[in-house]
Specification:
The chain is an alpha/beta fold and 170 residues long. It has helices spanning 17-26, 49-63, 77-84, 96-112, 132-140, 151-164; strands at residues 5-10, 32-38, 68-73, 88-93, 117-122. The chain has a single domain (5-164), classed as HUPs (Rossmann fold). A five-stranded parallel β-sheet has the order 3-2-1-4-5, sandwiched between helices.
Length: 170
C-alpha cells in the first residue's frame, strides 16, 4: 500500500486557531497532508489567494509539521484531490449547522469519486465558535480577535482592517 495522502481544503481567509487545530490533528491521520487553499470569490475574501497561502505556510512552519504542505487550487475539490493522489478529504465540524452542509458535500463528493473518503474532525470545544467570516466581521467592527487567531495572523488582519477602514460607529 502506498503513501496515504489527505487534503484539507478551505479558503483560510484568515487561517484561525480552529484551522490549525484540524491541521495538527489531521496530519496524524495521513502520511502527507495537503492544505488546499482555494479561491472563493463568493466569500468576499479579505486576503488574496497568495496572501492566504503565505499565511497558511507560515502557520504550518511554526507548528513544525514535516508532513504538511500548502498548495493553491481553483478547481472542483475532487479533481484537485485526484490530481494530488489523495484518498482522504479532511473536514472540520464546528456545530450541527456545519454538519448538514458537510454531509451533503461528502455525499456529492462520494458520487464523483467513491475511492476518496471524507473524514470529519470535530473542532476542539474551546475552538468551536471560531469561523473566519466572524473573525473578519469582529475585526472590521473594532472587536478583539486575539482569542481566535495567532499573533501573526492578528497583525495581518488588523493591518488589512486599517487599510480598508473600520465599520460602524454605533
Amino acid at each position: 500500500m502506498g503513501e496515504r495522502i489527505g487534503v484539507y481544503p478551505g479558503t483560510f481567509d484568515p487561517i484561525t486557531l480552529g484551522h490549525t487545530d484540524i491541521i495538527r490533528r489531521g496530519s496524524k491521520l495521513v502520511d502527507r497532508l495537503i492544505i488546499g487553499v482555494t479561491t472563493n470569490p463568493s466569500k468576499n475574501p479579505m486576503f488574496t489567494p497568495e496572501e492566504r497561502m503565505a499565511m497558511v505556510e507560515r502557520e504550518i512552519a511554526s507548528m513544525e509539521l514535516d508532513n504538511v504542505e500548502v498548495i493553491g487550487f481553483n478547481a472542483l475539490l475532487m479533481k484537485f484531490a485526484e490530481k494530488m493522489g489523495a484518498t482522504v478529504i479532511i473536514r472540520g465540524l464546528r456545530a450541527v449547522a456545519d454538519f448538514e452542509y458537510e454531509y451533503q458535500m461528502a455525499g456529492m463528493n462520494q458520487q464523483l469519486n467513491a475511492g476518496i473518503e471524507t473524514v470529519f474532525l470535530m473542532a476542539d470545544v474551546s475552538l468551536q465558535p471560531i469561523a473566519s467570516k466572524l473573525v473578519k466581521e469582529i475585526a472590521l467592527f473594532g472587536g478583539d480577535i486575539t482569542p481566535f487567531v495567532s499573533t501573526d495572523v492578528l497583525d495581518e488582519v488588523m493591518a488589512r482592517v486599517d487599510e480598508r477602514g473600520r465599520m460602524g460607529d454605533y
